[in-house]
Design brief:
By secondary structure, the chain is of the alpha/beta class. Helices cover 71% and strands 9% of the residues. The chain has 2 domains: 6-103, 2-Layer Sandwich (Transcription Regulator spoIIAA); 142-376, no CATH class. The chain has 13 helices and 4 strands. The protein has a 4-stranded mixed sheet, with helices on one face.
Length: 379
């Protein structure tokens, strides 16, 4: 017996039967080496019957069963057969725990199924409609839960709401300030090139002010919170879903909608308008800095023109949009978390889906508001 812990004896009587006698150990540490040695010894022997003598095998584990199954399939490809003619008690006990007859067979390949393009489109359409129906039911349940909570404010978990305001609002201030200032600076810098040609430098205040208060400020705040807080909601609730914590709340008589989703909705409804105003201030500040250094405007001239350019409705319309954006971000994040399935992979899918869906719905909602304000004559 060598250092590998086994010995192999191959007896070929030039007939249709080849005997392989294995002695020693067949275990995880040497099974790969054993497979290579047996395959090399029998590679040129096709169309024969192989008899395995395992009577002197002292140690045999589940990897030995895998070895015999793999060899049986290899011999089957060469129109050969594998039979175990003798086995020790250890080998019999391990083989008795598995369906060796089934393992030695090649797995059946599923028949190729041609899928038509219209079938794919139909399946996607049906799946989308089912998802849309679930979303509508979810929206109705959330609306009822939110209405009940507003009618019964003392039953709301305001401590959780305050904590969520800190997480979604206070901790988001630095990134919102930075991104809004950069967007304001880029907007002003891109416009300065054109305005300078016409001597209309002063109107950069109109462009930055109206652009930030009506559109860019609320959009930047909403998109950042969709990626930061909406995804967190989906991951948190999704993890609770796959760990059966939501079922535990239901069993204890605590509705998950009231316990988890309502505080997050209220927190986002409070935080998003404030962050939109915060984004407006820093975006306009960034645009003012560019106008001072690129267009030689004074801060007083910029602020005076800004005061004439934007009105109360410009700021209010952005705040109104941001309120609905906050509801969308929280509702979509919680919905994706509640519909999570499939373990850790499902949590990742829900998180990604919540961000994509939130941003898409934010853009759609913003476009809808623009159209409505236009036809109302206030946009």
């Amino acid at each position: 017996m060598d250092k590998s812990g086994y010995t192999i004896t191959v007896s070929d009587n030039s007939s249709d039967v080849v005997t392989l006698r294995i002695e020693g150990e067949v275990c995880f540490s040497n099974v790969e080496l054993l497979y290579k040695e047996i395959s090399g010894s029998t590679s040129k022997l096709s169309g024969k019957t192989f008899h395995f003598d395992l009577e002197n095998v002292a140690r045999f584990d589940s990897s030995g069963t895998a070895l015999l199954s793999r060899l049986a399939r290899d011999f089957q490809d060469k129109e050969s057969e594998l039979h175990i003619t003798a086995a020790s008690d250890t080998v019999r006990e391990v083989l008795a725990l598995t369906d060796f007859t089934h393992l030695r067979q090649h797995p059946e390949k599923p028949p190729h199924r041609h899928v038509h393009l219209f079938e794919i489109i139909g399946e996607d359409f049906i799946g989308s409609m089912e998802d849309f129906g679930q979303l509508l039911r979810y929206i109705g349940r959330v609306f009822l839960a939110l209405t009940w909570s507003l009618k019964n404010p003392f039953r709301v978990r305001w401590g959780e709401v305050i904590g969520l305001i800190h997480r979604t609002g206070s901790q988001a201030l630095p990134i919102v300030a930075l991104m809004s200032a950069l967007v304001g600076m880029v907007t002003a810098f891109s416009s300065a090139v054109q305005l300078r040609q016409f001597g209309a430098n002063i109107f950069i205040a109109n462009l930055v002010g109206i652009g930030m208060t009506r559109e860019l400020g609320p959009l930047m705040a909403a998109i950042l919170l969709a990626g930061r807080s909406g995804s967190a909601f989906a991951a948190e609730i999704g993890t609770m879903k796959i760990s059966d914590e939501l079922d535990a709340l239901t069993v204890m008589g605590i509705p998950p909608l009231h316990y988890l989703i309502v505080p997050r909705l209220l927190a986002m409804m409070i935080v998003m308008p404030l962050l939109a105003l915060f984004a407006d201030v820093f975006g306009i500040t960034g645009g003012m800095l560019i106008s001072i250094f690129s267009l030689n405007l004074t801060p007083i001239a910029f602020l005076h023109q800004l005061q004439q350019a934007i009105g109360l409705w410009d700021v209010f319309s952005g705040v109104l949009k941001s309120l609905f954006f906050g509801i969308l971000v929280a509702a979509v994040g919680c919905y994706r978390g509640m519909s999570t399935s499939g373990g850790a992979l499902g949590v990742g899918k829900s998180t990604t889906s919540s961000v994509v869906s939130s941003i898409f719905l934010i853009v759609v909602a913003d476009s809808t508001f623009v159209i409505i304000f236009h036809y109302l004559g206030v946009g």
